[in-house]
Structure formats: structure tokens, C-alpha cells
């Protein structure tokens, strides 16, 4: 019969094997099922600013990597030609309005003349009925009234044309005012100027990008999780984030992407499915983007850099209940 000393190595061996099995199970669960990933990136919205008008840049108010606030003046394009266009538009509006006033005055005069001609025609018709005047005199009065009526219609048409000219002139004035205002480019968001290549003296052309602005209020984490881990991730779950630089902070799951590109399903001829005839026995789990909102209380938001690498661990709802 074996003594306690002889059974001790066997017990130790069994304990080590049991511990290895337990640790192996937890390692397998952590690496294959637990909702975490090293494949995560810090992201931010980038606003590309372009000129709405063309011209030489006479003033550049920002430097590379400078933080700007929404509404700050970034640069100014030479406004000289647009000020002249604004002056011409103002004079055109004045001329059009003066022509409109003349048309209205002409209508008043035509209306007065028409009333006079119509009154004369009525009197001559009564005199003709009493044979006091000849038929030719009455016909002349009737003709004069018809001519006055036609003159009034023509003046009313001229009034409509004058009103249209005023509207066109005012529209051109608004366009000139808008072009003049667009010579000054302002920051649409709070953010950081990045990779600034524009210099004062450069010629800005319409719709050509001038500078990029990283929205400092839009930073978030984009984590790419294997599809096998998605059942354990839910919107609102708490998240722990660690940057490669060593910084740590919390967040929450904001949303989960609903689709990714399928490389095996590309359109073929006549829009038929083009299926790859080869098949690999080892199938890798697809990675699905998960958008993670950063804790607003995190004090290091101003030190985040879009594009940097992060490790993300999701705290599952069941784990939260245990913690509570």
C-alpha cells in the first residue's frame, strides 16, 4: 500500500493537469469568444474646405496643427473684383427700380388719358343721338378711346417687364453679395488644421480643396470584431479602451454595422453572380465594424489622434449585473 509521500507526486500531477485544463478553457474562451479585439482605430470626421469663389489668397490666418473654433476666420481671398461686382449689382438694381417707377407713372398717365377718352366718347355718343354732331366725330372719339385702352395695356406689359428686371437685378445683387461673403472662409466646426499645404499668395480655384479640418468633437473608436463575438455585444454595453501609447479610458457601444463588402460576390457578365470556384477548408471569421462612443468625461480627448491603434474590450451586460 502506497504511503502519503508516494501518492503526493500523483496528486500534484493531477492538480497541475486540472489547472492547465481550466486555464486552457478560460484562454480558449477569452481568445475565441470574449468580445475584445486588438484591431481598433481612433476615428474622427474630417471636413475638407474648398473655395466657393476663385482668386488669390491674400491672408492665411492659421498654421498647421492649429486648433480653431467654429466661426474663426481661416483665410481670405482677394475681394477686389467681387467688391466691384457688388457695386455694379447695386447700380443695376437702382436703374431697374427707376425704370419700374417710370412704368408705374406711365400707367397712371395712361389710366387718366383712358378715362378722358372714354368720357369724351360717351358725350359724343349722346350728341350723335341728338344729331348734334356728325357720325365721323363720334367714330373719332371711339377710336381715341380704343387707342388709349391699347396704350394702357402696353404700359401694363412694360410694368411687368420692369418688375421682372428688378427681380433679376436683385437676384444678381444677392449673388454678388454671396460671392463677396464667400471670399472669407470660416471654420464650420471646432477642430484641428491638419497637413496644411496652402500658403498666402496661392491662387484658389472653385471647388479645389484648400485645407482639411479634423472635427475635435467627433472622435470615436471603430473596433473590428469577429462575427463569432457579435452575439455578446449589444448597443449601450460599456467598453474599455487602451491605446497603443498606454492611455486607458472608457466608452460605450454606439452602434454595430449592418453590412460589409462580400469579396466572393462580385457581379459577372450580364449581372450574374461571379462565384469563386475554389473553396478553402479553413474559413476565417469576418470582422464587423462596431462604433464606440468615447466617455465624455475623459480628460484626454484633446490628445487623441485619428488613425492610432487601440485595443477594445466590451463589458457584457451579464458582467455588469454581477458587478452591480
Judged by helices, strands and strand pairing, the structural class is alpha+beta
What does the radius of gyration come to? 41 Å
Q: Which segments are poorly predicted (pLDDT under 50) over 5 or more consecutive residues?
A: 318-324
Global geometry: elongated
SS element count, helices: 4
The ordered H/E elements are HEEEEEHHEEEEEEEEEEEH
What distance lies between the first and last C-alpha atoms, to the nearest angstrom? Answer: 52 Å
Query: Which sequence of strands runs across the widest sheet?
Result: 1-10-15-12-11-16
Tell me about the biggest sheet? 6 strands, antiparallel, barrel
Beta fraction of the residues?
Answer: 25-35%
Please, what is the average pLDDT?
84
In helices, the fraction of residues equals: 40-55%
Number of strands: 16
Topology:
Layout (H helix, E strand, L loop, with lengths): L3 H29 L3 E8 L2 E5 L4 E6 L6 E2 L4 E5 L2 H50 L5 H47 L2 E3 L4 E4 L8 E2 L4 E7 L4 E7 L11 E6 L4 E9 L9 E2 L5 E2 L12 E8 L14 E7 L1 H7 L1
Antiparallel strand pairs: 1-10, 1-16, 2-9, 3-5, 3-8, 4-7, 5-6, 7-9, 10-15, 11-12, 11-16, 12-15, 13-14
Helix pairs in contact: 2-3
Walkthrough of the structure:
It is a single chain. The protein is an alpha+beta fold and 324 residues long. Strand 11 (238-243) and strand 12 (248-256) form a beta hairpin. It is built from 4 helices and 16 strands. Residues 318-324 have low confidence and may be disordered. It starts with a helix and ends with a helix. The longest helix has 50 residues, at 80-129. The strands form 4 sheets. A 6-stranded antiparallel barrel has the order 1-10-15-12-11-16. The protein has a 4-stranded antiparallel beta sheet with strand order 2-9-7-4, with no helix packed on it. A 4-stranded antiparallel beta sheet has the order 6-5-3-8, with no helix packed on it.
Amino acid at each position: 500500500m502506497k504511503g502519503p509521500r508516494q501518492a503526493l507526486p500523483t496528486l500534484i500531477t493531477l492538480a497541475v493537469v486540472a489547472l492547465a485544463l481550466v486555464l486552457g478553457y478560460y484562454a480558449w474562451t477569452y481568445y475565441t469568444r470574449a468580445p475584445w479585439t486588438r484591431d481598433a482605430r481612433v476615428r474622427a470626421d474630417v471636413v475638407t474646405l474648398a473655395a466657393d469663389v476663385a482668386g488669390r489668397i491674400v491672408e492665411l490666418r492659421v498654421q498647421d496643427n492649429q486648433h480653431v473654433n467654429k466661426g474663426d476666420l481661416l483665410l481670405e481671398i482677394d475681394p477686389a473684383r467681387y467688391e466691384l461686382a457688388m457695386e455694379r449689382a447695386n447700380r443695376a438694381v437702382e436703374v431697374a427700380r427707376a425704370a419700374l417707377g417710370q412704368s408705374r407713372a406711365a400707367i397712371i398717365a395712361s389710366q387718366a388719358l383712358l378715362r378722358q377718352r372714354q368720357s369724351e366718347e360717351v358725350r359724343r355718343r349722346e350728341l350723335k343721338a341728338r344729331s348734334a354732331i356728325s357720325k365721323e366725330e363720334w367714330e373719332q372719339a371711339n377710336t381715341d378711346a380704343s387707342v388709349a385702352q391699347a396704350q394702357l395695356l402696353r404700359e401694363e406689359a412694360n410694368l411687368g417687364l420692369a418688375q421682372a428686371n428688378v427681380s433679376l437685378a436683385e437676384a444678381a445683387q444677392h449673388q454678388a453679395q454671396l460671392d463677396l461673403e464667400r471670399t472669407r472662409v470660416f471654420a464650420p466646426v471646432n477642430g484641428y488644421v491638419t497637413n496644411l499645404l496652402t500658403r498666402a499668395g496661392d491662387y484658389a480655384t472653385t471647388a479645389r480643396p484648400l485645407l482639411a479640418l479634423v472635427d475635435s468633437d467627433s472622435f470615436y473608436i471603430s473596433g473590428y470584431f469577429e462575427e463569432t463575438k457579435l452575439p455578446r455585444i449589444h448597443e449601450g454595453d460599456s467598453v474599455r479602451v487602451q491605446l497603443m501609447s498606454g492611455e486607458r479610458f472608457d466608452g460605450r457601444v454606439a452602434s454595430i454595422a449592418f453590412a460589409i463588402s462580400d469579396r466572393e460576390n462580385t457581379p459577372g457578365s450580364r449581372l450574374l453572380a461571379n462565384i469563386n470556384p475554389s473553396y478553402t477548408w479553413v474559413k476565417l471569421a469576418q470582422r464587423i465594424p462596431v462604433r464606440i462612443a468615447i466617455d465624455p468625461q475623459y480628460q484626454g480627448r484633446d490628445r487623441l489622434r485619428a488613425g492610432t491603434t487601440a485595443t477594445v474590450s466590451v463589458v457584457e451586460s451579464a458582467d455588469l449585473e454581477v458587478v452591480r
